[in-house]
# Entry
Amino acid sequence: MLLQAASPMAIPIVVLDPEVTAPAKQVSQPSVMPLADPPLQHVDGAFTSLGMISQLAQQVDILTIEIEHVDVDALEHVANEFKTTGGRSGQGVKVYPAPSIIRTIQDKYAQKVHLQGQGIPVAPFLPITSSPATSLGSNPRDALRESVLSAAHQFGYPLMLKSRHLAYDGKGNFVLKSADGIDEALQALIPEASLATGKPIADRLYAEKWAPFVKEVAVMVVRGVDGQTRSYPAVETIHRDSVCHIVYAPLRPVDTPTSGIGKEQRGMGKLGEKSVDRRAQEAAEKAIDALGEGAVGVFGVEMFLLPDGSLLLNEIAPRPHNSGHYTIEACNYSQYTAHLYAILSLPLPPIKFIPSSAAMLNLLGWSASGSDDFLKPDGVVRKAIGMGAAVHLYGKAGCRKGRKMGHVTIMGESDEEVKAKIDELVDVLPGDYK
Ligand code: ATP
Ligand code: MG
Ligand code: MG
# Structure
């Protein structure tokens, strides 16, 4: 989608991805762009390989990421190596966002420590460590169990256990309902095999107090090289099994009876004079500013709206984000165009949400293996096209259950109209996704 946004401005992009047929590589052929000699080439390789990242860096002026699970040491090396010389034009390669920011964000515990240190409200959290002060013998599993119990003692149940690294779509999270589940949780998050290796297992997990949210809210923030910051409207994200399922844009009024938040106006909250939307945007902008100068590009900020109307920050994605896909059709410029403007040091015009109401539905793979036929006659895609929705199918090679294969964006005159259309689409999804 970033390459699709680059295409109208003929901005050449070279992609590093392990797969030769990666969706991004399907979008452009840098080798036929009349820009460089030798011609630009997509790179087939790992995001974790210094050699591959260097091969990419040699071809570009600006290097950015669309996934945070990259080797930051390699990015830092490249940023230093190519600081003033090298790269496509020989004048150095800029890495956005700064590798140090990606490093903080990719460790979810370090990210929480940073945010808390900047005075940004987050759910209370504690490290889970295999080396507690008390002497518990040499069994790391016992020490971990003890550490989880101590967190549960402080925060109560349910307790959210999270992997610090390589988490996405809830993979790496475990909701602990009682002390009886600790072994199962440790087994799931740190499998037996990895304990048996004898390698240190400290610092792999942390615990978070359960946030009894009434809604999950997200804001896309774009920050330029000069520090100018703009945010897209706050949206509601609805997760299913920890995977983003539907996004409603802008944020709908909270109508949960326990919420105490007014229904009359979109997103109006009872804490203070400002609406939830505005407070969410301000919190998100503050969080991105707090990352420092190197925070350049677009960022997804996930938050929890609590029953009393206050907001907790859940996590930051240092890249375009699923909760911002609606911006492609529903805003004057999309999160992808915004990212390009930011990293290319171009102006960031005011952001406008165009329709009255919009929503995005993710198209997740539903078969365990093989390919789902999204275009089949009675399927969701045909129905979405029929109702005038924008359909995106990513062209991923393999379809797995729960894998994000595409999405659909609906725009309408009212929240009711958009909701009715989403309901109609969800109705034709296979059983698990209704
Ligand atoms: P992503 O795919 O967004 O990167 P992730 O795997 O990093 O997700 P989180 O965002 O930490 O995981 O959590 C996934 C979902 O789990 C959240 O969107 C929310 O629904 C739920 N969740 C996370 N933390 C908490 C919490 N402290 N209390 C209650 N629910 C939570
Ligand atoms: Mg995450
Ligand atoms: Mg998340």
